[in-house]
């Protein structure tokens, strides 16, 4: 697991992290600037707050969807899954914090542990 290749499988296949936050950064920054300029207590500020929240929600939904699908794909294809022991909190305090947060490595590890063995018993 890492930033250059999100996962490296035993088949040699590497998955690039999708970087949902990085892709939406300009749109989010524009919406946040508009929110910062709006007068407190106004209706336009309330609308701007909703726009910012909607962008954050979309990023969150995209990431969650991709993580679920990727984890399920791995669990269905392989019998044994080994995960590298990383200190995610420590990595999130470095210069690469935004990238590690965008990759959501710890969430992915949780998703892998949550998934059933991939067989559908009915």
Chart the SSEs and their pairings.
Elements: E1 7-8, E2 14-15, H1 20-37, H2 43-77, H3 88-91, H4 97-103, H5 105-114
Antiparallel strand pairs: 1-2
Helix pairs in contact: 1-2, 2-5
Largest sheet data: 2 strands, antiparallel
Helix/strand order: EEHHHHH
Average pLDDT number: 82
The strand count comes to: 2
Oligomeric description of these chains: single chain
Unreliable stretches: none
Rg over CA atoms, rounded to whole Å, is 18 Å
Q: What structural class do the secondary elements suggest?
A: mainly alpha
Distance between the termini: 33 Å
Rough outline: elongated
Q: Helical content, roughly?
A: 55-70%
Strand order of the largest sheet: 1-2
Helix tally?
A: 5
Give the percentage of residues in beta strands. under 5%
Can you give me a brief rundown of this structure?
This protein is mainly α and 122 residues long.
Describe this structure in words.
With about 120 residues, the protein is mainly alpha-helical. Helices cover about 60% and strands about 5% of the residues. A hairpin with a 5-residue loop joins strand 1 (about 5-10) and strand 2. Helix 1 (about 20-35) packs antiparallel against helix 2 (about 45-75) and helix 2 packs across helix 5 (about 105-115). It is elongated and about 55 Å long. The mean pLDDT is about 80.
Q: Can you tag this structure with a few keywords?
A:
5 helices; 3% strand; mainly alpha; two-stranded antiparallel ribbon; 122 residues
């Amino acid at each position: 697991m890492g930033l250059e290749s999100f996962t490296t499988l035993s088949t040699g296949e590497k998955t690039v992290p999708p970087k949902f936050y990085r892709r939406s950064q300009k749109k989010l920054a524009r919406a946040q600037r508009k929110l910062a300029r709006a007068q407190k207590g106004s209706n336009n500020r309330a609308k701007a707050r909703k726009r910012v929240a909607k962008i954050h929600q979309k990023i969150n939904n995209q990431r969650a969807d991709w993580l679920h699908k990727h984890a399920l794909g791995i669990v269905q294809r392989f019998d044994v899954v080994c995960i590298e022991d990383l200190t995610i909190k420590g990595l999130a305090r470095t210069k690469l914090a935004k990238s590690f947060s965008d990759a959501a490595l710890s969430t992915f590890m949780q998703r892998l542990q949550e998934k059933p063995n991939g067989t559908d018993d009915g």
